[in-house]
Design goal:
Low-confidence stretches: 187-198
Distance between the termini: 38 Å
Strand order of the largest sheet: 1-2
Number of strands: 2
Mean pLDDT: 81
Number of helices: 17
Shape: globular
Structural class: mainly alpha
């Protein structure tokens, strides 16, 4: 591999953190007020850390081969399940793109000083499509251009605005301003033995719908494994890849926790807006200190960061699909690469799908519920992939015990059962939660919601199996000729 194709540990860590972290998730967690710590604890210790540990072991074991979750699951079970795993990882992020691109469009609207554009479907749709194809163009230029842009974009457009909002929250408190989460509605507060009202630390659970947000928040921490396909591009993948995963997990936990708390401190509960995202908070604090122009600056930076996040995801799962095409799981035409070694035909098909989904902003008056249903569906699909990844890690300890692993989940077989098994149970619980509509959002009939998510899950699970079986039949027919 040419020297200029190598990437560093810090670059891979920043690319991975960029895939995990999106500032658009901070208001969602902040809306849960102090119960956010329950969700963050669950997502970090029962999901993010197990996923980082397991992907570090699997990534170091198969670093020289690439393919990410496709190779891991294939080696543990069979090619059909391997293809299903990478397909689920890929399709969920295709549906995710329009939501993060919509957030980028809102950021651009605030950058231009025209926040009303954030609610204009034509602007949001056209901006999303144009931004996605720009990201695709950068990706087609190769790994070097991608890692440079993603690393810098993440630092400038995600980490820096995250640090700014945390510092502004500290200044807000030091200035004697009120703490917003001290004045919140009854449904998110509790009372102590003396009947003193206080912010609720644990969700008020009267049914599964009350914790349906858990799956959405879990997805905010997902993606720590997505750049395992780039492990062969490290100079010493067996040792560098685990370090990159741990660094990415640490950055993700810190920025999510402090950022969400800052939003909850500054923004009154009724003003927390999932669509406008972080900019309501920016506007409140900057207007208070008479530096409203800083909201425009933050809009520019966050737009840049959102683009970096899109770039981070474009290169990962689609490259995993490239491996499946080369191994006969997809038509050979999808294995075509350009002179930079980038999977051009897969990216073109992916771009067409994202363009179609982003066009919904233009043709529909209200896409919030539609995209929430799509998000719930893709969350479920992604969680199935994580179940397969954890199961693969456990099985490989038995079927390939002598496979060189520069990093192993500590504790031997008992350790892998505790870490991967615990992660599997947490994901299984979260998967069950996705079938219940959240009580926090008006999504219509609960029965209809559940039926749509269940039928969609079965449909998208059937697609990769059908493709894989079809490719097997074609290969057998060729062999008979």
């Amino acid at each position: 591999m040419a020297k200029d194709k190598r990437i560093s540990t810090s670059q891979l860590a920043l690319m991975t953190a960029a895939a995990v972290i999106s500032l658009r998730g901070l208001p969602m967690m902040a809306q849960e007020e102090l119960t956010m710590f329950f969700y963050i604890f669950f997502a970090t210790f029962l999901f993010l850390i197990p996923a980082a540990l397991v992907s570090a072991e699997l990534g170091s074991a198969f670093a020289s081969r690439g393919g990410g979750v496709y190779t891991w699951v294939k080696e543990a079970f069979n090619p059909h399940l391997g293809f299903t795993a990478i397909f689920l990882q890929w399709i969920q992020n295709v549906v995710w793109y329009p939501t993060v691109l919509g957030f980028a469009a809102a950021s651009a609207a605030y950058m231009a000083g025209l926040p009303a554009l954030a609610e204009n479907g034509i602007f949001v749709g056209c901006f999303s499509i144009a931004m996605y194809w720009f990201a695709t163009w950068i990706t087609l230029r190769g790994t070097t251009a991608l890692t440079d842009f993603t690393s810098r974009g993440f630092l400038v457009g995600t980490v820096l605005p995250g640090i700014v909002i945390v510092l502004m929250a500290v200044i807000w408190l030091a200035g004697g301003n009120g703490i917003a989460f001290e004045h919140i509605p009854a449904q998110v507060v509790g009372t102590d033995a003396a009947h003193h009202v206080h912010p609720r630390l644990f969700p008020h659970i009267s049914g599964m719908s009350d914790i349906a947000f858990l799956a959405g928040i879990l997805l905010l921490f997902a993606g720590v494994e997505v750049h395992a396909v780039h492990a062969p591009e490290l100079k010493r993948p067996q040792s560098q890849f685990p370090r990159a995963m741990f660094l990415a997990a640490l950055i993700s936990f810190s920025l999510f926790t402090l950022g969400a708390l800052a939003v909850a401190v500054i923004t009154p509960y009724e003003q927390i807006d999932l669509q406008a995202g972080l900019f309501v908070t920016f506007r409140i604090v900057f207007d208070h200190y008479r530096i409203g122009w800083m909201t425009n600056v933050m809009g520019l930076l966050v737009t840049f960061g959102a683009l970096a996040g899109v770039l981070s995801w474009i290169s990962g799962p689609s490259r995993g699909l490239l491996w499946t095409a080369r191994e006969g799981r997809l038509p050979r035409v999808l294995g075509k690469t350009n002179r930079n070694g980038v999977q051009i035909n897969i990216l073109l098909i992916q771009g067409a799908l994202v363009t179609l989904l982003s066009s919904l902003y233009i043709v529909m008056k209200n896409v919030n519920v539609a995209f929430f249903l799509l998000s719930a569906l893709t969350i479920g699909l992604y969680l199935i992939m994580y179940m397969m990844m954890y199961a693969a890690a456990i099985r490989l300890r038995y079927t390939q015990p002598d496979l060189p692993r520069s990093y192993r989940v500590p504790g031997g077989r008992a350790g892998i059962w505790i870490i991967a098994g615990g992660g599997l149970l947490a994901v299984l619980f979260s998967f069950a939660v996705t079938f219940f509509p959240p009580s926090q959002l008006p999504v219509g009939s609960p029965a209809t919601y559940t039926a749509l998510v269940a039928s969609g899950t079965l449909l998208f699970l059937a697609i990769p199996f059908a493709i894989s079986r079809s490719m097997d039949r074609q290969e057998r027919q060729k062999g008979k000729r």
